[in-house]
Amino acid sequence: MGRGRVQLKRIENKISRQVTFSKRRTGLLKKAHEISVLCDADVALIVFSTKGKLFEYATHSSMEAILERYERYSYAEKLLTAPETETQGSWTLESSKLRAKIEVLEKNIKHYVGEDLEPLSLRELQSVEQQIETALKRIRTRKNQVMHESISNLHKKERALQEQNNTLSKKLKENDKNIEERNAGLLLPPPQPQLLPPPPQPPHSLAPLVIGSGSFQGAAAIREDDPAQTHTMSATMMPAWLLRHMNQ
Q1: 67 class by beta-carbon count within 10 Å (0-12 exposed, 13-18 middle, 19+ buried)
Q2: Which residues form a coiled coil (predicted)?
Q3: Where are the alpha helices (DSSP H) in the chain?
Q4: How many whole angstroms separate alpha carbon 32 and alpha carbon 124?
Q5: Where are the domains of the chain?
Q6: Cα–Cα dist 171/23, whole Å
Q7: Which CATH class is domain 13-61?
Q8: Averaged in consecutive runs of 10 residues, what is the pLDDT profile of the chain (248 residues)?
Q9: How far apart are CA 128 and CA 134, in angstroms?
Q10: What is the C-alpha to C-alpha distance for residues 160 and 221, in angstroms, rounded to an integer?
Q11: Phi-psi bin for 121: left (phi > 0), alpha (psi -120 to 50), beta?
């Protein structure tokens, strides 16, 4: 005998309803995976249990990307089919979509800070954990980059200060050296006056008188023996101006 058709109505027994939900949910997720693989289709499946627990399935693209794509196509189709008088309604729909996105983002933020994690499944918790680890890796990479840049800037400032310090030290040494040379110049003895050489004697001076004792004796002998020679000798020893005065 063939299997009879199951009557589609709400199962009143709570336990039977939960067992049936688990079996059908598993089969539904399996069928969604099969159609995505066989037909190369983007599939997104969302199921809420009677207790409000979320079950979802998405292909290689994320659930957010598929929903955003669906909203774009749905909104574009509504704009093409709706008359111009319904423009205000389209804006209302767009605002409701934006509010829904804001709620999803706020929910994700709560999950990232560790809040409202009870309704999440194991797969969803693993996804949140992976996203947090990826964010931490990016934060640590950026932090290390900022630290290296800060250390490099500090090294550059240190080298600049060292060069400035060396320049100031050289200038200080030069100033000390100039002060020492100036003080040494003040302590030097005053210069001694130089003695000028004696002026040259004019010709026909009385220099032959200082020739020696022999000359005086010879001159005396000539004066004693010959008065003419004495006069000649005296005239020879006297300067020309004295002779002219005597001849006058």
Answers
A1: middle
A2: 122-178
A3: 14-39, 63-81, 87-112, 122-186, 213-225, 227-237, 240-247
A4: 18
A5: 13-61, 62-120, 207-247
A6: 91
A7: alpha beta
A8: 69 88 91 90 88 84 81 74 59 79 85 81 85 90 93 94 93 90 71 60 48 42 47 55 64
A9: 10
A10: 100
A11: beta
Residue entry with tokens 């009870």:
118
For residue 108, give the amino acid letter. Answer: N
What's residue 87's pLDDT?
A: 59
**Residue linked to tokens 């004295």:** 242
Residue type, 1: M
How far apart CA 152 and CA 144 sit, in angstroms, is 12
Token reading at 32: 């969604």
